[in-house]
Amino acid sequence: MRILLYSISYPPEVAGSGRFNGELVKWLAEHGHEVDVITAHPYYPEWKVRADYRGRGWFVEKEGTLAVYRTPLYVPERVTGTTRIIHELSFALNSLVHWGRLLFKRYDVLIGVCPPLQAGLVPYMFSRLKRTPFVFHIQDLQVDTARNLGMIKNEFLLNFLDGIERYLLRKADRVSSISEGMKRNILSKGTLPDRYRMIENWVDIDTFQPLSQDQSLRAEFGISATDRVALYAGNIGEKQGLEVLIDVAVLLRHHPDIKIVVIGEGAARERLQEAARQQSLSNLMFFPILPFEQVPRALAMADVHLVIQRRATSDLVMPSKLANIMAVGGASIVSSDKGTSLSDIIVASQVGWVVEPEQASVLADTIVSAISSPLLKQYRLNARKYAEEHLSKRTVLPRFEAMLVELVNKHTKTNG
């Protein structure tokens, strides 16, 4: 197949959907397909264009049959609802340069990865012009998230964006997403059930394996073997609501052996670090994002992992970090409402504890009890087993390819 993927995120970004997009197109290319990618200059999660991409404009990176069309974009110093809209629009508009140069190239299928929402709109219009099947892959229900978190307060704008989203979800030839909760929301917005496919975020279970604490980064980070670590590793943004960790650290001051470790970058990092400094929280430690090859050793530092999110995002997002945590045999404390797909996975698979979101005292008490729980060892074994059986790249990626093959064959048969 000749495939075009359109997304704002792509390697060398490893946070968010960047890593998944990269692994997907590389896998497709290795299995004989010709793949083009239209994407941005890498900027996430630091919200700064990486030094080796600055000022380079529009250009193409090639690797075998894989071609990556890089697009410059506006990256705000301060991320707000308004600046984020401008940021995403700048990518959509600037990427038209590449869409123009590919106008006369024939593709069998187009894939748009959301967020941002425009990553569905542009390839959809191109697909109708070229009479090519369109797949809308949803990593995050962005409009609902923006509404629930108050990131966009203008009701007219929210309703306008919601209308575009619903239109795309109805018109796409296939819609895929990564969790049961997202599936329920998507079907409620007008996607026909026979057009929907579940494609969970995957993990390379050979790269992410259980390691001992001696093999971890504890020594490099100055964390002793006797310390107990509750680790958050991932994006530090608005959706996560990591402000709760400030209150948790205050409550755990009388447990000097417990360290809350935060690894990552994001729009809210500086604010959190300043709050920790003002409270003199020596038990709350921040470290920058790590090279991808170091992530398994970083995850191995944890006694328990923290998967934190706001109540307002329940079933609108599925934390991508969870697959990596499970693959390394990590037990998690997850903030999620009961009945959400995230909560259901944790409870049914017996891989951790679920706590009510935004409740510092409950989270602090659960960290203390989980670290010494007799269930901890079994939860770790269960997590690794779940990753091997359900989240392996070797299991999930063939299903993505099968969805594309099915769609292209159907389109070819229908249109001759």
UniProtKB/TrEMBL annotation:
InterPro entries: Glyco_trans_1, Glyco_trans_4-like_N, Glycosyltransferase_grp1. Residues 16-202 form the Glycosyltransferase subfamily 4-like N-terminal domain. Pfam families: Glyco_trans_4_4, Glycos_transf_1. Residues 216-388 form the Glycosyl transferase family domain. GO terms for molecular function: hexosyltransferase activity. NCBIfam families: PRK10307.1. This is WcaI family glycosyltransferase.
